[in-house]
Specification:
Blueprint lengths: L1 E10 L8 E16 L3 E3 L11 H13 L4 E7 L10 H17 L6 H12 L5 H6 L2 E6 L5 E6 L6 E7 L5 H6 L7 H20 L2 H7 L6 H4 L6 H9 L4 E5 L6 E5 L17 E6 L4
Parallel strand pairs: 3-4
Antiparallel strand pairs: 1-2, 2-4, 2-5, 5-6, 7-9, 7-10, 8-9
Bound molecules: L-homoserine (HSE).
Length: 283
């Protein structure tokens, strides 16, 4: 069987709603081979179906390749699902790669896969880092294609994720958002997200602390995370770290300039159980 892996990702990074993402050195692994009949193993049986995201991505890529055939895949799903760590984008990218490796002789470029996978996912912010790694800024162009620029993230910054013992759905978290935003919110978002890229790329933690404010999604989604206000206050109290919602949540992303930050976290009085994981960026 052929093996490959796809990284866990975090999307938005505060004000970069639906456009910024980061890849972690923490992966779902896939083993694949050609087969006459679709068979997906290693995951929950509900994902061994024609309408799974993996299979939709496989079929969409086969259509682009103009090929017929199926697969036997075994997934090692390390990235928890419905937690804001890009598990949907992960399996979509894996489905595209499976078709490209088994039937396309790797003819499609990462950029081609980025287009196919983003159409299935609906937005590019988790898909881009799952394919290109690092910090990615993505945009939908006037011709309907997606463009992405990748940056390496500074080694001066340390990342942890706080993963709770409950799930939320992206669909529900998107329904909570307003249909329209004010000009002030638009200007705030543009200016903060430009400088977030600079802070992550250069490792300027003081800048990062100043510009990670989001007005587009976090104020509306925090009600889905009962401990959000408490943890944010605790984590940011001494300026030790910044805390953001990872993707649509409920995982929280902690960025610090101290590598032992997670040991100092104070999570004793929380309602949920939180699993702290320190992660390196996959540049
Ligand atoms: N940008 C997306 C959102 C990421 O926040 O809804 C989750 O897929």
């Amino acid at each position: 069987m052929i093996k490959f892996k796809v990284p866990a990702t975090t999307a938005n990074i505060g004000p970069g709603f639906d456009c910024l993402g980061l890849a972690f050195s923490f992966y779902n692994e896939y083993r694949i081979e050609k087969s006459d009949k679709m068979l997906m193993e290693g995951c929950k049986p509900k994902y061994n179906t024609k309408d799974s995201l993996f299979n939709k991505a496989f079929e969409a890529t086969m259509k682009v390749l103009k090929k017929k055939g199926s697969y036997h895949a075994i997934e090692t799903p390390n990235v928890p699902s419905s937690r804001g760590l890009g598990s949907s984008a992960n399996v979509i990218v894996a489905g595209c790669k499976t078709a490209n490796i088994l039937y396309g002789n790797n003819k499609l470029s990462d950029y081609d896969i980025f287009q196919i996978a983003t159409i299935i996912e609906g937005h590019p912010d988790n898909v881009a880092p799952a394919i290109f790694g690092g910090l990615t800024a993505s945009v939908k162009l006037n011709n309907g294609k997606y463009y992405c620029k990748k940056y390496n993230v500074s080694k001066n910054l340390y990342f942890s994720v706080l993963i709770p013992d409950f799930k939320t759905s992206t669909e529900m978290a998107r329904k909570l958002l307003p249909k329209k935003y004010s000009k002030e919110d638009a200007v705030s978002t543009i200016s903060h997200s430009i400088l977030i890229i600079e802070a992550l790329r250069s490792g300027n933690y003081e800048l990062l602390k100043t510009v990670c404010k989001d007005v587009i999604h976090e104020p509306y989604r925090k009600k889905l995370i009962p401990d959000y206000d408490y943890i944010k206050k605790t984590v940011e109290k001494n300026g030790d770290a910044v805390l953001l919602i990872s993707g649509s949540g409920p995982t929280l992303l902690v960025i610090s300039n101290k590598n032992n930050f997670s040991k100092n976290l104070y999570l004793k009085n929380t309602k949920a159980n939180w699993n702290i994981k320190s992660l390196k960026i996959k540049n």
